[in-house]
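User: Can you recover a sequence for this backbone? Please restate the input before giving your answer.

Assistant: Of course. Working from this structure:
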C-alpha cells in the first residue's frame, strides 16, 4: 500500500490543527472522505439533481437509474442474494430502530426475551430495551470478559430463555473485538432465533458476506466507510423483511392511498419513506468502489500492522491500562493512563493536532462493567501511517508528563 498516494486522495488530512499537522485517529467515530466521494456528490448536484422514483423527466429518470444501480453495488458488496434486500436508511441507529420496532410489533410478546451483548453501542441496546418494556419482555445480556472477548460459557442457557431475537455487534467500537458471530448465528438458528448484526465497525475493515454469515439482518452507516453522514444500509433476508410491518409511512413506500385505507409498496420501497438521499446513496457506491480498488484484504492487513505497532509502542509507556486485548481485534486502541482522566489526555493530544475520541463511546453499560468512566480511544484507517503513530505516542508521553 502506498500511503503517500492514498493520503493525497483525502484533502482534509493535509492541514494544520492547532498549529500542528493533523493526525486523525478518530476513524471509529467517522472516517474521512476521499476526493472521488466528494466529487460524486458535487457532480450529482451539478448535473443530475432530481427527485428519484417520481417524475418522468430525463433527469429524474437518470437519478432513479443511478440510485438503483448503487443499490446493486451495495448488494454485491455484502453479497446479498437479492437487490431488494438492501434498504437505504439514515444509518446504523435508524436501521436498528426499524428492525426493533417492527419486529417487536409483530413477534415480541410478554415473557419473551431479546438477547444482546454487554459490549453493545447504545444504538443496539436502547431500541431493544424500550421494545422489551413496551411488550413486558426481557432484555438478556451476554457478558464480556476482562480481555474484551464475549463470555460464551453460559450461552446455551441464555438461548434457552424464550429468546426471540439475537442482536449483537460484529466488532466493538470500544474494544475493537471481532466477535465470533458465525458461531452465535449458528447457535441462534439451531433454535430458530433470527439474528441482527450491527456492522457499523466492521463494514470498512472486514469483508462482509451476508449469505456466508447467514445473518437475518445487518446494519451499517456510510460515514464509517469513507462516504457521507446521514445515509446507511439495512440488509434483511427477504423472508424476514416481508414479514415485518412498515416502519414509517409516506413517499415511495405507498402503493395506493384512499382516505379509508392504504396499501403499501413491495421491498425495498416498503421501508423507504420520503425523498431519498440520492447523493448520499451514489456516494456510498463510489466509496465501495474506492475501497475495492485498494482491496479489503490489503486494508485489513495494513491496519493490523498499524495496530501491532501502536500497541507495542504504547505498551512501552509506564502506567498504560489497555481496555480490550482480545486476540481477534481491529485497529482500535482504548486505554487510560493510571490516575489520569481520559478527557485531560484528549485535550492535550488535541493541542498537538492529534484527534482521538475520549469518553464512554456511547457504551455506558460496558464502562460500568469495566469500572471506568471512559477511555482514550485511538482508531486507525488505511490512510494512517507509522509516523503518525510515533507522533501520537510522543503526545501520550507529553500528556503523562503534564498530568501525572
Ligand atoms: N459509533 C463511535 O465513535 P450511527 O451514529 O447511527 O452512524 O452509528 C451508531 C453506532 C452503532 N453501532 C456501533 C458499533 C457504533 O460504533 C456506532 C457509532 C461511533 O464509536 C459514534 S457514537
Amino acid at each position: 500500500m502506498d500511503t503517500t498516494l492514498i493520503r493525497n486522495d483525502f484533502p482534509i488530512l493535509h492541514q494544520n490543527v492547532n498549529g500542528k499537522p493533523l493526525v486523525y485517529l478518530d476513524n471509529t467515530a467517522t472516517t474521512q472522505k476521499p476526493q472521488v466521494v466528494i466529487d460524486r456528490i458535487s457532480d450529482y448536484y451539478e448535473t443530475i439533481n432530481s427527485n428519484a422514483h417520481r417524475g418522468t423527466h430525463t433527469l429524474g429518470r437518470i437519478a432513479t437509474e443511478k440510485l438503483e444501480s448503487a443499490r446493486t453495488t451495495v448488494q454485491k458488496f455484502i453479497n446479498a442474494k437479492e437487490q431488494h434486500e438492501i434498504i437505504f436508511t439514515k444509518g446504523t441507529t435508524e436501521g436498528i430502530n426499524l428492525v426493533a420496532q417492527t419486529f417487536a410489533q409483530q413477534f415480541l410478546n410478554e415473557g419473551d426475551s431479546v438477547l444482546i451483548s454487554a459490549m453493545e453501542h447504545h444504538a443496539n441496546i436502547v431500541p431493544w430495551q424500550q421494545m422489551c418494556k413496551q411488550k413486558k419482555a426481557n432484555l438478556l445480556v451476554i457478558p464480556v470478559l476482562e480481555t474484551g472477548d464475549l463470555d460464551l460459557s453460559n450461552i446455551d442457557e441464555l438461548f434457552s430463555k424464550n429468546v426471540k431475537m439475537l442482536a449483537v455487534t460484529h466488532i466493538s467500537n470500544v474494544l475493537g473485538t471481532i466477535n465470533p458471530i458465525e458461531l452465535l448465528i449458528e447457535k441462534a438458528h439451531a433454535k430458530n432465533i433470527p439474528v441482527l448484526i450491527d456492522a457499523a465497525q466492521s463494514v470498512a475493515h472486514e469483508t462482509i458476506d451476508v449469505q456466508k454469515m447467514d445473518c437475518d439482518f445487518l446494519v451499517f452507516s456510510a460515514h464509517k466507510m469513507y462516504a457521507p453522514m446521514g445515509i446507511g444500509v439495512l440488509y434483511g433476508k427477504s423472508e424476514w423483511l416481508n414479514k415485518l410491518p412498515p416502519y414509517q409511512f409516506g413517499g415511495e413506500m405507498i402503493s395506493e392511498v384512499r382516505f379509508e385505507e392504504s396499501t403499501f409498496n413491495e421491498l425495498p420501497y416498503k421501508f423507504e419513506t420520503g425523498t431519498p438521499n440520492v447523493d448520499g446513496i451514489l456516494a456510498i457506491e463510489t466509496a465501495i468502489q474506492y475501497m475495492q480498488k485498494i482491496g479489503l484484504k490489503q486494508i485489513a492487513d495494513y491496519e493490523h500492522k498499524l495496530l501491532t505497532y501502536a500497541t507495542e509502542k504504547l505498551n512501552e509507556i509506564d502506567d498504560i491500562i489497555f481496555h480490550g486485548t482480545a486476540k481477534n481485534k481491529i485497529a482500535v486502541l482504548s486505554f487510560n493512563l493510571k490516575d489520569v482522566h481520559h478527557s485531560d489526555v484528549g485535550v492535550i493530544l488535541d493541542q498537538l493536532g492529534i484527534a482521538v475520541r475520549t469518553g464512554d463511546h456511547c457504551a455506558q453499560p460496558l464502562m460500568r462493567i469495566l469500572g471506568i468512566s471512559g477511555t482514550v480511544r485511538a482508531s486507525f484507517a488505511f490512510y494512517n501511517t507509522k509516523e503518525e503513530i510515533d507522533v501520537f505516542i510522543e503526545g501520550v508521553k507529553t500528556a503523562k508528563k503534564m498530568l501525572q
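That completes the design. Residues 28-29, 91-93, 121, 123-124, 169, 173, 198, 200-201, 221, 357, 361-362 surround C6P (CB under 6 Å).
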